[in-house]
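Subject: MBL fold metallo-hydrolase

B.,
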Amino acid sequence: MLIAGFPAGAFQTNCYVVAPAAGEECVIVDPGQDATEGVDELLREHRLKPVAVLLTHGHLDHVWSVAPVCGARDVPAWIHPDDRHLLSDPAAGWSGTSASMFGGLTLSEPDDVRELSDGAVLQLAGLELVVDHTPGHTKGSVTFRLPVDEIMFAGDLLFAGSIGRSDLPGGDYATILRSLATKCLPLPDDTVVLPGHGPQTTIGRERATNPYLKEAAPHAGPTRGI
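Prediction pasted inline below.
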């Protein structure tokens, strides 16, 4: 398994490329602000051929470069339908002064956009990726899991020591706690979490130390044993 990434742009959003090995096909996860050059460097370094771009949600800092990255390689972008409108209307994902900052920014959908659904299994680039719908940060937030390797691309659902904010349009605190309870807490402790911002962590570490996962635990129900 090859996973390489870098923090893109002013938002320092983690962009990843994922492949079975160097020299093979790959997928690109969350190409954010000014990510095109970094993506190109990783593709050259590891001799990779992208077949798709996967988006954990529609916020600008995760989708900024999706159209040029998809267009340059003629590959589709995958996003949950509840966030698809943010690809062409980035200000809709923000509020107040933040929205006005992005109001003049023009983005467009890639030519080929495909929609994700909860529980879908994507067979891409020799990888099997399970899609989990995890609303709360946005309505269309998802995570991507490689269950065989126990790896989760968490987007802005779960960070090392924290979780994604829920005060932006489409966000809801009770909903993000339910997503954490139903999609994160049941995972094995060894599951590696690759978040949208900051360093990687594990489910076990977050279960033991993250106050938000402790708060989410009652929402998992009595059968979870947490």
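The helical segments are 36-46, 60-63, 66-73, 96-102, 173-184, 203-209, 211-216.

T.
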